[in-house]
Specification:
single chain, about 100 residues, elongated, four-stranded antiparallel β-sheet, Arc Repressor Mutant, 4 strands, alpha+beta, 3 helices
Length: about 100
């Protein structure tokens, strides 16, 4: 689900007969739920609008957690292999990893 640049993930709680979801693009926890698709979509939009209104009332910028920097831990052997591949392709390790992630998405 997408709304105003935010992404929601939805799951079905079949025991309760309700959909529930969470906004993925935030460090803050923003959730929503509904019993029908229409109700769920409206709850998702309302939750984002409420979050943005809350930020405005407090004089805070909405949470934007993605800076483009990523800490990555991997085995020394995988690190070496990735470095060698990057060098073979004439790229920095950072650019090579970025390209591979872009291909995967």
């Amino acid at each position: 689900m997408q709304y105003k640049g935010y992404t929601g993930r939805v799951e079905l709680d079949d025991e309760a007969g309700i959909f529930h979801g969470e906004v993925l693009d935030l460090r803050d926890v923003v959730t929503f739920q509904g019993k029908s698709v229409e109700e769920l979509i409206q709850a998702f939009r309302d939750s984002i609008d409420d979050y943005l209104d809350f930020c405005t009332e407090r004089g805070e910028e909405p949470n934007k957690p993605f800076t483009g920097r990523l800490m990555l831990r991997l085995s020394p052997e995988l690190h070496r292999k990735a470095y060698v591949r990057a060098q073979r392709e004439g790229k920095s390790l950072n650019q090579w990893i970025s390209d591979k992630l872009a291909e995967a998405s």
